[in-house]
Structure formats: structure tokens, C-alpha cells
Amino acid sequence: MATPHPVPWPRALIAFGRCSAEVVRSLIGRRLHQPLPNLGRVVAFADGTTATVYRETRRDNHPVTEPVCLVVSFRLRWVDGNRLAHRVFRVESVCNTVLFAGFDGFVSKLWMTADGDNRYRGIYDWDGYDSAVDYVSALWWPLMVVAEQDSIHYHVVGDRTRDSLLAGGGPVPDQREWWRPVRRGG
């Protein structure tokens, strides 16, 4: 389980400024979308939890040259099992698009509801291992404000797209692989 090593906050602030500017350019250029086909999709994970896709964000890019799948997990502070607080977070989270959709390498994100352990996950398609880790290293700062600090984790799966990871296959997952989607019942 990897915990992000945060970049110094001034560097993160600059990265988020660049990201926000790219989000604006992407919106103006109509390159940022919220596709509907995955909404409501239930994903089971190797740790025995499940979560449901409540939003997808996709940015039209050049062809992906180094596909990686990034999975980020965190538990919100002060929310626990409060259903209203979870709903408010899911509605508000669209504002968080400026915190990721303009980073170098971003391709798409599936936004997942909180699982049975109250952990939220984001499952991303990313172009480039290093750029995915750079993003997570900056993301630590805003997540630290709203999430339990020791709950912020990520995993990068090299040479895989999100869809291939969601399809399963490969070695039998270990229950400690909180990030690995599995086929229902297995």
C-alpha cells in the first residue's frame, strides 16, 4: 500500500494552478466530458469491499503512449456512515475536477462511492507512470485537508488501462490488494 510522498506545498500550488488553467482550456475546447455508460457500475475489490461509479470524467488527448491505471483511496474526516454527508460530498466533488483533469497525462477518472469501510476510490486512466505519481504527490495536499491523513493511499498499475484492470484476469488477488478490482464472487 503506497502512501504519497507530498511535494513541497509551493510546488503543489504551482501544479494545481497549471492544472486549473488546462481544465479551463479543455472546457473551452470541449475536450472535457462526463460520459454516462459507467454510471451505476458496481465494482468489487480484492479486499472484499464494493463501490459504485457515480461520475466519470474524460479528457480528449493525443494517443496514449504509456498506459497506466492509477487507483487512489481515502477516507473523509468527520463523515463516517452519515449518508447525507456522503451525498453532499458526491455533489460537491464535481468542483474537484480542477484538481486533476488538467494534469499532464490525465485521460479519465471513475469516481467511486464510499465502500463499506467509508473509503472513496478514484480509478484513473493515465498516460505515464511518472506523471501519475507526480499527480498523487501534489494531490496529497488537498486530500490532507478533507481526509484522514493515514487513509490516503495509491497504487499505479503499469502497462494497463482502467478497462483492462476492471476486466480482471491475471493472478489471484490477495485481500491486501485494496486497489485491485475482482469479478463478483471472486
Write the layout of secondary structure elements.
Layout: H1 9-28, E1 32-33, E2 42-45, E3 50-59, E4 67-75, H2 83-92, E5 106-112, E6 119-127, H3 129-146, E7 153-158, H4 162-166, E8 181-182
Antiparallel strand pairs: 1-3, 2-3, 2-8, 3-5, 4-6, 4-7, 5-6
Helix pairs in contact: 1-3
Q: Would you mind describing this structure in some detail?
A:
With 186 residues, the protein is an alpha+beta fold. The protein has a single domain (9-181), classed as Alpha-Beta Plaits (2-Layer Sandwich), CATH 3.30.70.100. It is 28% helix and 26% strand. It has four helices and eight strands. The chain has helices at 9-28, 83-92, 129-146, 162-166; strands spanning 32-33, 42-45, 50-59, 67-75, 106-112, 119-127, 153-158, 181-182. Strands 1, 2, 3, 4, 5, 6, 7 and 8 form an eight-stranded antiparallel sheet that branches. Helix 1 packs across helix 3 (129-146). The longest helix is centred in the N-terminal third of the chain and has 20 residues, at 9-28. The chain is globular, with a radius of gyration of 16 Å. The mean pLDDT is 89.
Summary?
The chain has 186 residues and is of the alpha+beta class.
